[in-house]
C-alpha cells in the first residue's frame, strides 16, 4: 500500500497507482481471496472442498450462475456442453493454415476471436439468451480448439470430440486419442485434470480477468473479450510461469551444481534469477492451490509414471526455501504453478501447452466476471487516468528546417 500517492494533474487530483495494486475498480460476488490466511473461495465455497467433492463442469455452473446446480440443472448443463463441442468445418481449416511451428497459445486466442465471425447469432451483449449461447459455445469449443492447436503444433492429425464423454474426458480424447478406437481414458488422469481446472477456474481481478472486463466494458462481445484475456494470460509473469518452472527444474537437473547452489544464486539475485513458481502478489502465506496440487502431483507421478527426479528436485527446493531466512522474511511460498507443470508433463502434454491448459481452466471465471460486469448497473467503460510527464507546448518545425 505504499506506492499509491495523490498527484496533481492538469485536471485536478488523480490517484497514482502503478499496476492498480491498491485500486478496487468494481464490486464482485464471485471469488474471495484472503492472501494472508491462504484462503480461496468461489461463491463462498472453499477451494479445498470444491476440489474434493465437485467437478469442473459443476464449478463452471457455480461460478457463472452463482449457485450449485440441482441434479436436473447439472444434467441439462452437462448435456448442453456436450452438444456444442464441434467446430464449424471452416474453423477446423484454420489449423491447417497456421505455420507448422506456431505456439499453441496464439492459435487459441486467434480461434476464439474468430468465433465472432462464425457464431453471429450470439454476439449481443444485452440479450440474455444470446449471452448464454455464447457462454455454452465457448466452454464447449475451447477444449476442442486447445486440442486442435496442440495436435497442429505436434504435426499430428486432429481427433474429433465424442459427445458420449464429459468435458474433461473428451478433452483427453481430443488431445491424445489417436487412433480413437484404441484409446482408453485413464480415470486418474481425468480426475487430476478436472481438479487442476477447478483450481484455475477463477482468481478475481488478475491480469487476464481484468483484461476481459476492461475490453468488455466497451461492450465488445464475449468472444472478443475472452480472446483478449487469453493474450494477457500468455505472458511469462502470468500464465506463462507454469512452463518456466519446468524449464528451470530441467536446467538445474542438467547443471552440475544442484539445488543448493541454484538457491544461492536466487538469494544473491544473480542475473535477476528468480525461483519460478514461488511468490505471489496476493498470497503471503502458502498458496492453498499449491498445497492441493502437491498431493495430486505425488499421486499422478506415482501411478502414471512421470519424472520423479524432477518432482524430488522440486520438493527439495521447497524444503530449502521454507527453512531459509531469505524466503521466510519475504513470505515467499510455492504458488499454483510450482507443481502443475510436473503433472501436465506426466499426463503427456508438451511444455508449450501448459499455458493453454491454464486458459481452459480459467475460462469459466472469465465468463462469470464478464457477465457480472455487463449486468452491473455501476459498470462504466474502463478508462484510467494518467500523470502527463511529457513536454509543454512546442512550436512545429517544418521538415526542411530540422
Ligand atoms: N524468487 C526470488 N525472490 C523473489 C521471488 C522469487 N520467485 N519473488 C519475489 N522475490 C523477492 C523480490 O526480489 C523482492 O525482494 P527485495 O525486497 O529484496 O527486493 C521481494 O521478494 C518482493 O518481491 P516483489 O517482486 O516486489 O513481489 P510482487 O508481488 O511484485 O511479485 C511475483 C509477485 C511476480 C509473482 C513474484 O513473486 C515472481 O516473480 N515470482 C516468480 C514468477 C511466478 O511464479 N509467477 C507466477 C505467479 S502466480 C500466477 O500468475 C498464476
Automatic annotation (TrEMBL):
The record's Gene3D superfamilies line, in alphabetical order, gives: 2.20.28.60, Citrate Synthase, domain 1, Cytochrome P450-Terp, domain 2
Q: Which InterPro entries match?
A: Citrate_synth-like_lrg_a-sub, Citrate_synth-like_sm_a-sub, Citrate_synthase, Citrate_synthase_AS, Citrate_synthase_bac-typ, Citrate_synthase_sf, Citrate_synthase_typ-I
- Mind telling me which PROSITE patterns this protein's record contains? CITRATE_SYNTHASE
State the pathway, as annotated in the record: Carbohydrate metabolism; tricarboxylic acid cycle; isocitrate from oxaloacetate: step 1/2
- Enzymatic reactions: oxaloacetate + acetyl-CoA + H2O = citrate + CoA + H(+)
Q: Which UniProt keywords apply?
A: Transferase, Tricarboxylic acid cycle
Keyword Transferase attached: yes
Q: Which SUPFAM superfamilies match?
A: Citrate synthase
Any matching Pfam family: Citrate_synt
Task: Specify the superkingdom.
Answer: Bacteria
Q: Which family does it belong to?
A: Belongs to the citrate synthase family.
PANTHER family from the entry?
Answer: CITRATE SYNTHASE
Q: Please identify the protein, giving its name as recorded.
A: Citrate synthase
Organism from which the protein derives: Brevibacterium salitolerans
Lineage of producing organism:
Bacteria, Bacillati, Actinomycetota, Actinomycetes, Micrococcales
Amino acid at each position: 500500500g505504499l506506492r499509491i500517492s495523490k498527484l496533481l494533474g492538469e485536471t485536478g487530483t488523480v490517484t497514482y497507482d502503478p499496476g492498480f495494486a491498491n485500486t478496487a475498480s468494481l464490486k464482485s460476488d464471485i471469488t474471495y481471496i484472503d492472501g494472508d490466511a491462504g484462503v480461496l473461495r468461489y461463491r463462498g465455497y472453499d477451494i479445498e472442498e470444491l476440489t474434493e467433492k465437485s467437478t469442473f463442469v459443476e464449478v463452471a455452473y457455480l461460478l457463472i450462475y452463482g449457485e450449485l446446480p440441482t441434479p436436473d440443472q447439472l444434467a441439462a448443463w452437462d448435456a448442453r456442453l456436450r452438444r456444442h463441442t464441434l467446430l464449424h468445418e471452416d474453423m477446423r481449416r484454420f489449423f491447417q493454415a497456421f505455420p507448422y511451428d506456431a505456439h499453441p497459445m496464439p492459435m487459441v486466442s486467434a480461434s476464439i476471436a474468430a468465433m465472432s465471425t462464425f457464431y453471429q447469432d450470439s454476439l449481443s451483449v444485452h440479450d440474455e439468451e444470446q449471452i448464454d449461447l455464447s457462454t455454452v459455445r465457448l466452454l464447449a469449443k475451447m477444449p476442442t480448439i486447445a486440442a486442435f492447436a496442440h495436435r497442429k503444433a505436434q504435426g499430428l492429425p486432429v481427433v474429433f470430440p465424442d459427445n458420449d464423454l464429459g468435458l474433461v474426458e473428451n478433452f483427453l480424447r481430443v488431445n491424445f486419442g489417436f487412433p480413437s478406437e484404441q484409446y482408453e481414458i485413464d480415470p486418474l488422469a481425468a480426475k487430476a485434470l478436472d481438479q487442476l481446472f477447478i483450481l484455475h477456474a477463477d482468481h478475481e481481478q488478475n491480469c487476464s480477468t481484468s483484461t476481459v472486463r476492461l475490453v468488455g466494458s466497451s461492450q465488445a462481445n464475449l468472444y472478443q473479450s475472452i480472446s483478449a484475456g487469453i493474450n494477457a494470460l500468455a505472458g511469462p509473469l502470468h500464465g506463462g510461469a507454469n512452463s518456466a518452472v519446468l524449464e528451470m527444474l530441467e536446467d538445474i537437473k542438467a547443471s552440475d551444481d544442484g539445488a543448493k547452489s541454484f538457491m544461492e544464486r536466487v538469494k544473491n539475485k544473480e542475473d535477476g534469477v528468480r525461483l519460478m513458481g514461488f511468490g505471489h502478489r496476493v498470497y503471503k502465506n502458502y498458496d492453498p492451490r499449491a498445497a492441493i496440487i502437491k498431493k495430486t502431483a505425488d499421486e499422478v507421478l506415482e501411478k502414471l509414471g512421470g519424472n520423479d527426479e524432477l518432482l524430488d528436485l522440486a520438493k527439495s527446493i521447497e524444503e530449502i526455501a521454507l527453512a531459509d531466512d531469505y524466503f521466510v522474511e519475504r513470505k515467499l511460498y510455492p504458488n499454483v504453478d510450482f507443481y502443475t507443470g510436473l503433472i501436465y508433463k506426466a499426463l503427456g502434454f508438451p511444455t508449450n501447452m501448459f499455458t493453454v491448459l491454464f486458459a481452459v481452466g480459467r475460462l469459466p471465471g472469465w465468463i462469470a466476471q464478464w457477465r457480472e460486469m455487463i449486468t452491473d448497473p455501476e459498470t462504466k467503460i474502463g478508462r484510467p487516468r494518467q500523470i502527463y510527464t511529457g513536454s509543454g507546448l512546442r512550436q512545429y518545425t517544418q521538415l526542411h528546417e530540422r
